[in-house]
Write a structure and sequence with these properties.
Distance between the termini: 40 Å
Order of helices and strands: EEEEEEEEEEE
Number of strands: 11
Radius of gyration: 14 Å
Structural class: mainly beta
Shape: elongated
Helix content: under 10%
Oligomer: single chain
Largest sheet: 7 strands, mixed
C-alpha cells in the first residue's frame, strides 16, 4: 500500500506564500503523476496543480501564474507553492498520487488526508 504524508498549510495572511509538501511511502513502484487538489466549504473538490513523471504540469486557472508544482521523484515528494494568496484560496488541500507496482502491474491512485489552509484578509 501507498501512504501519503502532507505538511504545510495552516493560517496565512493574504499576499503571503503557501508551501505544501507531500511524501509518498510504502509500495511505491513507479509514480506516474502527483497532484494537489482542494475543496472549499460548500464546493466540489478541484484540481489545483498536477505534474507527471516526465515533468508535464497542469494548473487551475485560479492559480496559474502564481503557483508552482514540483516533483522530486527520487524522494517520492511533491511540492506546491502558491504566491500572493487570496481569501478564496481557503480550502482543505489534498495530495494525490497515482502509479503502479509489481509485475502485473497493480495500479494505485491514493489521496492524503488533507491539510487545512486558511487565508485571512
Amino acid at each position: 500500500q501507498v501512504q501519503l504524508a502532507e505538511s504545510g498549510g495552516g493560517l496565512v495572511q493574504a499576499g503571503e506564500t503557501l508551501r505544501l509538501s507531500c511524501v509518498a511511502s510504502g509500495t511505491i513502484g513507479t509514480i506516474t503523476s502527483m497532484a494537489w487538489h482542494r475543496q472549499a466549504p460548500g464546493k466540489e473538490r478541484e484540481l489545483v496543480a498536477s505534474v507527471t513523471y516526465n515533468g508535464i504540469t497542469t494548473y487551475a486557472e485560479s492559480v496559474k501564474g502564481r503557483s508552482t508544482i514540483l516533483m522530486d521523484i527520487g524522494q517520492n515528494t511533491v511540492y506546491l507553492r502558491v504566491n500572493n494568496l487570496r481569501p478564496e484560496d481557503t480550502a482543505v488541500y489534498y495530495c494525490n498520487v497515482a502509479g503502479s507496482y509489481g509485475r502485473l502491474p497493480t495500479e494505485y491512485d491514493v489521496w492524503g488526508q488533507g491539510t487545512q489552509v486558511t487565508v485571512s484578509s
